[in-house]
Fold this sequence. Notes:
The complex is a heterodimer.
Chain A: H1 2-22, H2 34-38, E1 75-81, H3 88-104, E2 108-109, E3 112-120, H4 125-138, E4 143-146, H5 150-162, E5 167-169, E6 186-188, H6 193-206, E7 211-217, H7 220-236, E8 239-246, H8 254-257, E9 266-270, H9 274-285, E10 294-297, H10 302-308, E11 316-319, H11 328-341, H12 347-365, H13 373-381, E12 384-387, E13 390-394, E14 400-412, E15 415-427, H14 435-440, H15 444-447
Parallel strand pairs in A: 1-3, 1-4, 4-5, 5-6, 7-8, 7-9, 9-10, 10-11
Antiparallel strand pairs in A: 2-3, 11-14, 12-13, 13-14, 14-15
Helix pairs in contact in A: 3-12, 4-5, 6-7, 9-10, 12-13
Chain B: H1 2-24, H2 27-53, H3 61-78, H4 82-104, H5 109-129, H6 131-134, E1 140-141, H7 158-181, H8 183-193, H9 195-200, H10 205-231, E2 233-234, H11 241-254, H12 260-275, H13 283-297, H14 307-313
Antiparallel strand pairs in B: 1-2
Helix pairs in contact in B: 2-7, 2-10, 2-11, 2-12, 3-4, 3-5, 3-10, 4-10, 8-10, 11-12
Amino acid sequence: MKTRIGIIGIVTLVFMAIVVACTPAAAPTPTPTAPAKAAPAPTTAAAPAATPTAAAPAAKPTEAPAAKPAVTTPIKIGFLTPLVGVYASLGADMRDGFLLYLDQKGNTLAGRKVEVIVEDTEVKPDVGLTKAKKLIERDKVNMLAGVISSGVAAGIADYVTSQKTPLMLTNAGDDPLTQQKASPYIFRISFANSQNSMPLGEFAYKKGYRTAVLVASDYPAGWHHTGGFARTFTEAGGKIIQEIYYPLGSPDLAPFITTIKQDANVVHTFSAGADGLKFVTQYAEYGLKGKIPLLCNWCTTEDMLDKEGDAAVGVVNGYPFAPSLDRAQTKAFVEAFTKKYNRPVPPQAEFGYTGAMAIDAALQATKGNIEDVDAFIKALEGVQIEAPRGPIKFDKYHNVVQNIYITEVKKVDGKLVNAVVETAQNASQFWKWSPEDYLKMTQYADLKGKWVK
Amino acid sequence: MRRSFLPIILVIAGLAILAILPKVLTSYYVGLLVTVLIFGIFALSLDLLLGHCGLPSLGHAASFGTAAYVAGFLSLKIANNAPVNFAAALFAGGAVAAIFGLLALRTRGIYFLMITLALSQVLWGLAFKWKSATGGDDGMPGIPRPNLSMLGLDLTPVNSYYYFTLALFVLVCILMYILIRSPFGHSLRGIRESESRMLALGYNVWAHQYVAFIIAGLFAALAGILYVYYNNMVSPKDLHLITSAKVLLMVILGGTGTFLGPILGATLIVLLENIVSGFTERWLLILGIIYVLVIMLAPKGLLGPLRGRLRRWIPM
């Protein structure tokens, strides 16, 4: 009996190991997520000591911190990001963008040292919540930042609000978090999901497309992105003829791609990270490329673009940032990121960077006093910066107002780039509607599956 | 005389320590303690199957997760009526055990393990796919704590929830203690040692195991309810093989068929998972090493070497 129990235990342990290795979220993506692994992935990553760079203006020496005793202790920021699974590479890029800014500032904001504690959410809401609890209650961080997945953001939102801890979302676009469920403590520097796709819907109609197929990973970000596209596309007069949703992190998208109706004028997809890579390459493999134009959100981010190769050429995207932008700030940022990490720069790297930039601006305004949460939040609300992606500010629901760039993948000098073809200036999450009208409309999560009429 | 008083003194001392701990610990560690107590209940319920019946279930999360989902769904979408939601969730967890028991108890040993595994994964698949009801992979966040205002209790602060959990934990321990010492508990162990002999003696082996299976399901359901209210969210992970395997390892690590073993195993694994994972992402590796060491050095579980002495105080 006893040896049998031992054997059962070993079998169980092996099972556990196999399952951990095989669950979709942790599955090895078709291409190695090399950036994530090659990059230093410290659990507790305080960026290295001061390395003044050309881009870093010196901290104001006139600041006399003597008046405030709190100044001597470091500011602690908890950074939540996935380092395994479908969004592993985007998560690492976002983290490195954030750390890059701090590094440029000598790890000191408004005269106080900054300590960043990075925790892996594994793209799972329950893990994210556990890690958020650990960061706030055990590590006593002053604020949280990061988060890639909308699901994780929705999972921690209530908790963060109840703890009165500011949270700067540097990717997760879950629409309700800055709309129906807006919290005084949650800011978003990246985008609301449909903010990226509403301009695309109008763009598609302008291009003469009249029928569209929606394909998305089956979770909030997918519903919001395709929903935003469908809202403006049908408003303009277009028709959605099919909706396809696949599980996030599916190992193979062929079963879904092969069911796309061939008479559609255009396909819109939300497929990000490893899913984006699979979607774009399999879309070409199954002969749809060249037949039905592909509009997408996040399927050609720079971390995957080289691996997608020629399959990606001609794919149109809606992004808040493109490294090819012709701006001095963009060039300086892209150069600094490439120099430090030596890998392509997807928008998530910029989100992390700009997130740190906004925190810095608010800290300057409050003279580094992050302990006064209300004053810090007030300062954040007033932040207006010239980010690498363009001018940005927050609306009164704490979501960023920014340019949305409609880009097309082109081959320039043998290198693939997301080249800007059109810009929607100062696009808010409510697009052309007033916040009041917009919030009265049915939410995307409830519209999923009902776009085909 | 002295020998019979010692365990009572120890139990009272233990309870006193558990009652005082929240006063000295920060909220994060109180939260960990809540998790320890919940998994302690969960592991005790599994030990009824594994330790006392010799039935290795790898699908014990089915009752746990089902109750969690039912409690979460009712509190979030219908009404935060604590007694009704508790009863409904307990019933759901017990019902799952009753149905699965009918199917699984036709087999023994490794086949029992496989069939419980398969059945619980069916429920996991359901929770994963049925998005309109369960929220799919993202689960259901924002579940409020049970509303006990009619008793004058506010369970929102982690400390009050800790005492609430502790009270139920003590209740479970008492019930389990009575159950194990009852004639029913003795027959279960008899069946574990030799089914054919018990059959020849006129015992209804199947009925004994079936009732034990349902009781274990009910206790697991209670753990599930406490878990969902503590975390304020439920996700398919609560039904997943990983959860079943985790609780099975807790029981084996601590020592099967002992009273304190599963609780010790739960404590160890919860603390490892939360504290070690703060230092390294590879905490499963460390758990693996500990497991191998325990199997090699103390094959009866951590409490194995102490078992002879414990037996005098505590049944099995």
